[in-house]
Amino acid sequence: MTEETEISKFDNGGAEAIKGFNFQKANLILLSINNYQKDNFKIYIEAEDDIVVSYENYKAFIQVKKQVHTFKTITKKEMKKINDPSGKSKKKISVPSPSILEKNLSSGTEENTFKLIVKDVGQKDKKQLKIKRPGSICSELHVLNDTAKETLIKSLPDELVKKIENFYFFVSPVHEDLNEAEKYLIGCLTAAGVSVDDKRGRLIIAELSLTIDQKAQYVITNEVDKELKLMDKDYFSRILQTSESLNRFDNVLNSLDYNMIIKKHIKKEKLKIELNKIELKEDIKNAINEYIENQNDALKISDKEIIEYVVNEFKSTKIEDITLIAVAIESLCELGDEL
To answer: Are 266 and 320 contacting, i.e. CB atoms less than 8 angstroms apart?
Structure first.
């Protein structure tokens, strides 16, 4: 079935609220760490829902609520004040707003997945949930039993009833306190094979948090704008470098005759490359390729000669030599992988 979602349904209400909303941000990062290597992985921030995740033929619309929730709280309609649409009165009128569940199910199609990430589910209602391990993008899910489905369906308009078959709770393992969440996420990075040495784990979390904040601020007015909300596999692959790729960097660095102090500074600069030196790295990779192609005997060119060429070639940029060396080594490693 072709998905048809009107752009007017996109939720911009959280565009500013996500700043400092650590539980939502932490869970978005958790989903990214655990899933970014999937083919065509994409995650959207504050688009049709709090989080929209897709890869291959899978798509999930996700609401994030840091409270303990029950069937009653997720189906409750709140009254909100709006301007009189008829224009007959200057006074605001009260209208019911969609419940948490209704809002979650209002996007996408019956083939999609719908999730509510919560701190926990009330114990009475939790007894009507079954554990599914693993989910497609979560370590485990709480699945509604038939009684729970019947209860929730009573609150839904007819057009959303069938979607309840693909609705799940995810009780987040991430603490709502940012410091505790950070420790947990760094552990997840380690489990995913991402290097977190030399405070790199905290730097990665900080970079992802900043990107989330920036993308959350964009207001969607058309389908093109929606892509401003995107973080994809290519982005995460640059940021979440594995220990294996970092070992290649260390091997090249250790083969060079810089002293230990200089090597330490070069390794520190390595941490910053994927955060703010992406364009510089592409320029240096192009320069290295051109340099090698112009040599009569490329087999005799050492890594050190290439790095010295890069430093001299880019001196006019006024970028420090240490930074240029770090980016040159990283570029060499990537070019080697591409062969």
So the answer is: no
Is residue 53 within 8 Å of residue 43, measured between CB atoms?
A: yes
Decide if 47 contacts 10 (C-beta within 8 A): yes
**What's residue 13's pLDDT?**
45
Paired tokens of 206: 């900080």
DSSP-assigned letters across all residues of 123-158: HHHHTTEEEESS-SSSS-EEEE-HHHHHHHHTTS-G
Question: Which has the closest alpha carbon to 294: 281, 309, 312?
Answer: 309
The C-alpha atoms of residue 142 and residue 112 are separated, in whole angstroms, by: 17
User: Which residue numbers in the chain have pLDDT < 70?
Assistant: 1-21, 87, 198, 243, 274-276, 337-339
SS3 assignment, position 17:
coil
Tell me if residue 188 falls in helix, strand or coil. Answer: helix
Indicate the SS3 state at residue 190: helix
- Look up residue 288 and give its amino acid: I
Sorted by sequence, the CB contacts under 8 Å of residue 30 that are 6+ apart come out as: 172, 173, 174, 184, 185, 188
Whole-angstrom distance, CA of residue 181 vs CA of residue 21: 12
Rounded to an integer, what distance in angstroms lies between the CA atom of residue 105 and that of residue 152? 12
Q: Which of 94, 113, 97, 95 is nearest to 105 (CA)?
A: 113
- Which pLDDT value is given to residue 84? 72
Contacts of 244 by beta carbon, 8 Å cutoff, 6+ apart: 193
Residue 202 CA: distances (Å) to CA of 26, 195, 267:
13, 11, 16
The mean pLDDT value of the chain amounts to: 86
Query: What's this model's pTM, rounded to 2 decimal places?
Result: 0.74
**Quick one: pLDDT at residue 243?**
65
Contacts of 282 (CB under 8 A, 6+ apart): none
Res 337: pLDDT: 66
Q: Are 253 and 263 in contact (CB under 8 A)?
A: yes
**Rounded distance between C-alpha atoms, residue 118 and residue 114, angstroms:** 13
The answer to whether the beta carbons of residues 31 and 51 sit under 8 Å apart is yes
Beta pairing partners, 120 = 68
